TrEMBL record:
InterPro entries: PDH/Transketolase, THDP-binding, Transketo_C/PFOR_II, Transketolase-like_Pyr-bd, Transketolase_C. It comes from Parachitinimonas caeni. It comes from the Bacteria. It holds the Pfam family Transket_pyr. This is Transketolase C-terminal domain-containing protein. Residues 3-169 form the Transketolase-like pyrimidine-binding domain.
Length: 310
């Protein structure tokens, strides 16, 4: 059965709410699309349909958190991060209120929704906020980890989820963690997050078939960042791949590590504001399909004296 990761988020919160009366869910009139419907059906008395009023919704959630509740706010990432930014900045970040923001339909692949629904620089916005924890899950286990971790912490959090549907119970290799190696570390390493980890997995498989062994580090938790410097210290080339602008997201976090490795940053170009179209066509046009990613990495690796293959 195909299902969005946001649907899984709604189901997890609904299950956890049976044992935790502090959990409430607020939604901005998108419950049947952003996953909140699963909570609403099981806990109607703890579900607030706030309407198309994201600013008010975040303010209400902040008040609920101050009163000891643990609210989760659902909406499309574009509406949540941009329309309600001032309330997130003041009421959640500056006040350090433990509100969980769940932004679905994040990234550059919006199908027919178009650029008004695109959130291609939401990570840059949310990573810049003090106290804000930031997650970009890639599978079911990542979603559960992000939610349970956020509920245990006393800080606000943002959980970024894509529009794409996955087979139910899709799992990447290994045990869910803030970051984990999906392919063993090598001198050439890909670092990816969220939906882009699936592109990276496919690209690494293509490269393996061409005789290139590529390490792959998946980062579900972007803030606070984990031991990336230690994990990547031995790399000669670090390739970051993300469903986000090349500016201000995962690539920028890696650049701040000031590692000696060469760098290749792959993501949506800074001038990209979102477009309607089939996912495969958009990915190929902007160099983010597995084949285009593999070509970019191979071209970089094959450059004379760029990478030490020993």
């Amino acid at each position: 059965m195909l299902m969005k990761l946001a649907d899984h988020a709604g189901k997890i919160l609904a299950e956890l709410a049976y044992a935790d009366p502090r959990i409430f869910v607020l939604d901005g009139d998108l419950a049947d699309s952003d996953g909140a419907i699963h909570f609403a059906q099981r806990h109607p008395q703890r579900f607030l349909m706030a309407g198309i009023a994201e600013q008010n919704m975040v303010s209400v959630a902040a008040g609920m958190a101050e009163a000891g509740m643990r609210p989760a706010v659902f909406s499309f990432a574009a509406f949540l991060c941009y329309r309600a930014y001032d309330q997130i900045r003041i009421c959640l970040s500056q006040a350090n209120q433990p509100v969980m923001l769940i932004g679905s339909h994040a990234g550059g692949l919006l199908g027919r929704n178009g650029k008004t629904h695109a959130a291609v620089n939401d990570l840059a916005v949310m990573l810049s906020l003090p106290e804000m924890q930031v997650w970009a899950p890639a599978d079911w286990a990542d979603v559960e980890l992000a939610i349970t971790h956020s509920l245990l912490d006393s800080a606000p959090s943002y959980i970024r989820l894509p529009r794409r549907q996955f087979e139910e119970a899709t799992h990447l290799p290994g045990i869910a963690a803030g970051s984990r190696w999906l392919r063993p570390r090598q001198r050439v390493c890909i670092v990816s997050t969220g939906l882009a980890t699936h592109w990276a997995m496919a690209a690494a498989e293509l490269l393996a078939g061409r005789g290139l062994s590529i390490g792959l580090l998946h980062c579900a938790q972007l803030k606070p960042a984990l031991q990336w410097q230690e994990e990547l210290a031995s790399a000669d080339l670090i390739v970051s791949i993300e469903d986000h602008s090349r500016f201000g997201g995962l690539g920028a976090l890696i650049d701040r590590l000031h590692l000696p490795a060469a760098r290749l940053t792959l993501g949506w170009p800074e001038e990209f504001g979102g477009k309607s179209g089939p996912d495969d066509e958009l990915l190929d046009y902007y160099g983010l399909s597995p084949e285009r990613i593999a070509q970019a990495i191979e071209a970089r690796v094959r450059q004379p004296a760029t990478i030490n293959h020993s």
